[in-house]
Specification:
Low-confidence stretches: none
Largest sheet: 3 strands, antiparallel
Strand content: 15-25%
Bound molecules: zinc ion
Number of helices: 2
Helix content: 40-55%
Structural class: alpha+beta
């Protein structure tokens, strides 16, 4: 018998990816990257895209997901 109640790992992966990809924008006037967290609405700033990605990942994992 086939059951559809098992959670789809791929769907979970896509959802987690989207958490990390949305909301990052570049401010051309201040030359800074900003990111507004879609979960807790906290706004973060960083001087480069590399830094905002690190900041964003750290925030999502340690603050929003409680150390997941
Ligand atoms: Zn957050």
């Amino acid at each position: 018998m086939i059951t559809y109640e098992i959670p789809d790992p791929f769907a979970t992966f896509v959802r987690n990816r989207n958490i990390n990809c949305v909301g990052s924008t570049y401010d051309y006037f201040s030359k800074e990257w900003s990111f507004k967290c879609s979960t807790c609405s906290e706004v973060m700033f960083a001087p480069s895209k590399k830094t905002i990605i690190k900041t964003r990942l750290y925030h999502t994992r340690n603050i929003c997901l409680g150390g997941y």
